[in-house]
Structure prediction request, 350 residues.
Amino acid sequence: MENIKNKIPGIILCLAIAIPAELLVRFISVLEVVGAPVIAIIAGMVITLFYKRKNITVDGIAFTSKKVLQYAVILLGFGLNLSTIAQVGGQSLPIILSTIATSLITAFLLYKLMKVPPKISTLIGVGSSICGGSAIAATAPVIDADDEEIAQSISVIFLFNVLAALIFPTFGGLIGMSNEGFALFAGTAVNDTSSVTAAASTWETIHGVSGVLDSAVIVKLTRTLAIIPITLVLAFYRLRKAKTAGGKGANVSLKKIFPMFILWFVAASVITTILNAVLSGGALETAESAFAFLKSASKFFIVMAMGAIGLNTDIVKLVKTGGKPIFMGFCCWVLIAAVSILMQHVMGLL
Prediction:
């Protein structure tokens, strides 16, 4: 009980950041492109410039930036109906695999060539290729990334999210994309769900069509499933590296670093899929409402966690060291977009 009490002040501080961030996005539509998580992390960093964290809030901030972030990933599973993804997202699988491979290889090569810190390189590569902030949230605990590394990666992803949401609808029109082609493009080449939504909605408004948003989001959710193999591979890689290094690192156990929260994420997805398959009528509507609530809770937990990460981040240091990570994010972003278009052309989908 005493341990819980120690966390309450810090959790309240994170709530005080997250709630206004959510309200700003809901009531100022232009901020939807930015997203509440980015607003929260920026607010946290700004607050830290003036508010020196006291012992009373340290435990709660640490709990929110680590554990609450993992709870958010678990609840994210309740937004994934695996049967729907299999039916609609199946044709996007070759494009998704190609863009994921492109981003990870690009991040690895630039890490070697430019000496970008390894954990930041991993987070940018995974965040660019899978699902932005959610992928970073899932990967960070597995590779033991600190809050400043998470903040650096989120900031890079945010920059290219905004650019994608603003540029891609017009760009897609200029190169003559079909509605189906743009849905695939937005779903595979835009990092974060909020920006996928913004880009697809803009396309629908420009062209006076419907259905593009739904298709783009399903493709995006299909990408989200890549969180599972990526985090598991990284966990085994970290264990192998620790044992190879010997010494103190050799004491790292699989049980300690294995991302158990990913298994709960899978369980949540399976529960969602089964209930959607077996329920009907009022029971199905009740289940869907519950899933929608849990999905909203997941998003809010991510906003809280980003606020906590912002509170643990030195914004001055972040700006000074941001050049190389931004260039890495740019390269990943451009090459993912190019590969998405190329694969659609090869598959005859444009």
Observations:
- The CA atoms of residues 160 and 212 lie 21 Å apart.
